[in-house]
């Protein structure tokens, strides 16, 4: 394991950063497993943002030999002391560390030391217990990059299906009331820009309807006539390759488009998680950097046991590595 200082420079090869998430959950374990996996299968270099003693302990737990450890690069953040670290426990100090790791990763991305940043699972309970208002990585990344929070959106990807969400964690009644043509356009544009960063220069976009069958011409409510249809017309007029609004069930089952714009949390989440229950990657669209996390939680019940499945983390690193390879301005550590 190589300890890297914040200002260190390395080779010209793009590097993917990994913030290890809640250090008392499975984040450090799946970060180490996935970092070694993507290095072995794709030759991709990674940089872990963590407390180095946590990474050392995980390496011991997994029985990693000198050669495997030598392939790990770690930027020691200094967010925890060894006496504080208690795998499997939800705690405020671990929540504060989660945020510290992401801050370090974003700073590295802004300095051009990494090409993209991945994050292992967090605990909203732990972060809020630390006195840090937090409802997921999206808002935090918006604040750290100076991006308005209402211009960042969750984009889930699973087995080639990509869905950007206009609304997320709120009641259906509140979400529908908040959906406007402007919000739909903002989500679509954020998703398109993210896909362009990932190498899809002219992605095909499908806007899903708010109501069943996209309202059936007003038969099932006029929301789509007033909102989604207006948004689609505006997007098309601006040059976006867009279709819709279409009923979500038909559109998502046919999968003819590069990107789908979902109106509600469950519209997008059910589709992606049916395809890949624990393997979805969660990108934050609308940021000036490429960022993705995994679509599952910190699994405190199995933390510290060496049995966590790193598949979703490996998929996320591979996704970001492919994006970095397609981007001529990809950074290096």
Description:
The chain is an alpha/beta fold. The protein has twelve helices and twelve strands. The chain has a twelve-stranded mixed β-sheet, with helices on both faces. Helix 1 links the parallel strand 2 and strand 3. Helix 1 (27-42) crosses helix 12, helix 4 (92-110) crosses helix 6 and helix 8 (181-197) packs across helix 9 (223-237). The mean pLDDT is 93.
How do the strands and helices of this protein lay out in sequence?
Layout (H helix, E strand, L loop, with lengths): L1 E2 L11 E5 L7 H16 L2 E6 L1 H11 L3 H5 L2 E4 L15 H19 L5 E4 L4 H6 L7 H9 L7 E6 L2 E5 L6 H7 L2 H17 L7 E4 L14 H15 L4 E5 L1 H7 L4 E4 L2 H11 L5 E5 L5 E4 L16 H16 L7
Parallel strand pairs: 1-4, 2-3, 2-5, 3-4, 5-12, 7-10, 8-9, 8-10
Antiparallel strand pairs: 6-7, 6-11, 11-12
Helix pairs in contact: 1-12, 4-6, 8-9
The whole-angstrom Rg is: 20 Å
How many strand units?
Answer: 12
Order of helices and strands: EEHEHHEHEHHEEHHEHEHEHEEH
**Share of residues in strands:** 15-25%
How would you state the average pLDDT, rounded? Answer: 93
Q: Distance N terminus to C terminus?
A: 16 Å
Uncertain spans, ≥5 residues at pLDDT below 50? none
Give me the side-by-side strand order of the main sheet. Answer: 1-4-3-2-5-12-11-6-7-10-8-9
Structural class: alpha/beta
Q: Biggest sheet, in brief? A: 12 strands, mixed
Principal-axes shape call: elongated
Q: Tell me roughly what share of residues is in helical segments.
A: 40-55%
**Helix count from the secondary structure assignment:** 12
């Amino acid at each position: 394991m190589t300890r890297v200082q914040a200002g260190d420079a390395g080779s010209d090869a793009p590097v993917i950063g990994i913030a290890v998430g809640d250090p008392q959950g499975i984040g450090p374990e799946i970060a180490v497993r996935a970092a070694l996996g993507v290095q072995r299968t794709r030759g991709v270099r990674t940089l872990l943002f963590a407390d180095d003693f946590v990474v050392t302990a995980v390496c011991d737990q997994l029985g990693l030999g000198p050669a495997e450890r030598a392939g790990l690069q770690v930027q020691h953040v200094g967010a925890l002391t060894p006496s504080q670290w208690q795998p499997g426990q939800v705690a405020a100090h671990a929540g504060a560390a989660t945020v510290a790791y992401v801050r370090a990763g974003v700073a590295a991305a802004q300095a051009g030391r990494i090409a993209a940043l991945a994050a292992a699972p967090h605990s909203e309970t732990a972060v809020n217990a630390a006195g840090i208002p937090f409802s997921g990585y999206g808002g935090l990344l918006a604040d750290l990059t100076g991006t308005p929070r209402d211009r960042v959106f969750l984009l889930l990807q699973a087995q080639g299906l990509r869905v950007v969400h206009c609304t997320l964690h709120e009641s259906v009644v509140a979400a529908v009331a908040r959906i406007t043509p402007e919000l739909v356009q903002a989500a679509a544009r954020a998703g398109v820009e993210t896909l362009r960063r990932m190498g899809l220069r002219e992605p095909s976009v499908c806007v899903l309807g708010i109501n069943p069958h996209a309202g059936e011409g007003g038969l099932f409510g006029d929301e789509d006539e007033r909102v989604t249809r207006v948004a689609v017309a505006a997007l098309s007029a601006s040059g976006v390759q867009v279709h819709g609004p279409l009923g979500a069930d038909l559109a998502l089952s046919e999968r003819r488009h590069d990107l789908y714009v979902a109106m509600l949390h469950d519209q997008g989440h059910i589709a992606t998680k049916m395809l890949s229950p624990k393997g979805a990657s969660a990108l934050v669209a609308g940021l000036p950097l490429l960022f993705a996390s995994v679509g599952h939680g910190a699994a405190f019940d199995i933390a510290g046991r060496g049995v966590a499945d790193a598949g979703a983390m490996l998929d996320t690193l591979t996704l970001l590595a492919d994006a970095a390879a397609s981007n001529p301005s990809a950074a290096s550590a």
